[in-house]
Amino acid sequence: MAVLEEFSRRFKLGSGYSGTDKPLEIIEVEDGVTDGDGMANKSSANFRLGVFSFFLFTIISIVLANFYLIDQHLSADGAFLFQIILDRETFTHGGNYFRIISVLLTQWPIVFLVKCGVTDLASLKLAYAFGLYFPYAFSFLLCVRALRGRNLFLLIFPILSMVVINLNISYMLISEAHVMACLSWPVLFLLCRIDDTRADKILLVFLLVIYSRTYESVVATSFIFLWIIVIRFWFLKNRKEPVFHLLLITICLITFVMSFYAGIHPSAPENKKSFLRSIISVYASPQLYIPVLFIVLLIFALLKKNAGYRLALFIPIFWYALVLLTHDHGLSQYASFSTRVTSLSLLPLLLAACFILSFGRFRHDKAVLLACFLFVSVVSSGHIRYSKDWKSFKSSMVQVLQQNSGFVRIEQTELNNSKCAWSWNNPELSVIWSGGCVKSIILNKPGFKWQAYDPEKELILKRYVKYDSFFRGIDNSISTCSALPDATSQGSGSK
Fold this sequence. Notes:
Blueprint: H1 2-14, H2 39-69, H3 77-88, H4 100-115, H5 121-146, H6 156-166, H7 176-191, H8 198-211, H9 218-234, H10 242-264, H11 269-281, H12 286-303, H13 307-312, H14 314-326, H15 333-338, H16 342-345, H17 347-358, H18 366-386, H19 388-403, E1 406-409, H20 426-432, E2 437-438, E3 440-443, E4 466-467
Parallel strand pairs: 1-3, 2-4
Helix pairs in contact: 2-5, 2-6, 2-18, 4-5, 4-7, 5-7, 6-7, 6-18, 7-8, 7-9, 8-10, 9-10, 9-17, 12-14, 14-18
């Protein structure tokens, strides 16, 4: 109730009903600077917080850039979607309009280049990566705008969300869960604005609409937003702008109902079962439960004026560093894939905690900022260190492709049972990583449940690569590359 009373008080003050038009700060700035003569110092402190947050976001950007440079965005469905965009020269929503915004936000750069006739795979992979990164930058800029005139320490929460949720889905960088998690934060901050302008209102409605078409797990976050809107309206004593709030409530209700239906009636029922199984089991990994512990301790450190909680913040940081020193490998591809469930389980809790804290009286000091910096740095260094697993997998596959000709069965190579290998995308990766001349193609294991295409019956990316003359038996329309030296073959060498 204390939080709700504070929320009500700040809304009235911020809206001008107390006889002042000056908006109230959401939270106290560091060093306890007050209004009046200290406003310049307050602005300076807030600017430093903004620079600090941007520095942390840059660290995350470096980690993502590392993933893109080693082609980790081609993991899982990444290679398949890349191939579909290039061959069909369009977006890959596939009729799934519930995720269409995520598709449009991430694929527009590569679709644009393909439409312009670019055929260089290196350039297209770069455009593909830029599109996947775009929602991060877009979300961060929107958060900064939504928090203008407020304490920028709140930017720590979307940054922690990116570190704990997004970076752990590193083997599924093309997942729509990334876009959904990123866009959640500017929506929250706009809902928390006290002195929102007409532009803020238009932006909020726009974001809520496109947010509803990002990923099915918006079922949980839309429920959180719904209650925030109700609280926001209820504590406006004169019930200001009922039509606007009714519109927001309607959008959230529609989003909740449709996403709930899509969740219980997915296009692939087996995905529903694996998703539900992962909700709890995913937190068995130290890469997840240690960061969650840090966030819990951070909330207590902000709420309680107790130095013990601030010192406790450094425990999970050193714990995670110890994991890095004692574990040679990070999450497997399927464990990473399972962490997408955190967009349903962890993200709503983070949003709710940020909302409550943003209207509470709490302080952050240099110890808290230092802990946040160390946490982001240590976890990010872990993701860079463990990216060697995928880099090694790619190097091994390229080596197999160079040393063989024709079709190669993966179970006859060192790639078999690799923790980075997927059961359905080996033929696509073989073509993409062929270096421009496809001499061999690694087949998926026999008995696979699904694969995007059968390389023994059709060929892909014919506009972008050339094939060895061996593959003319499958498609006579291919362009062939110059003869290559013979190499010891582990493949069948025939159709």
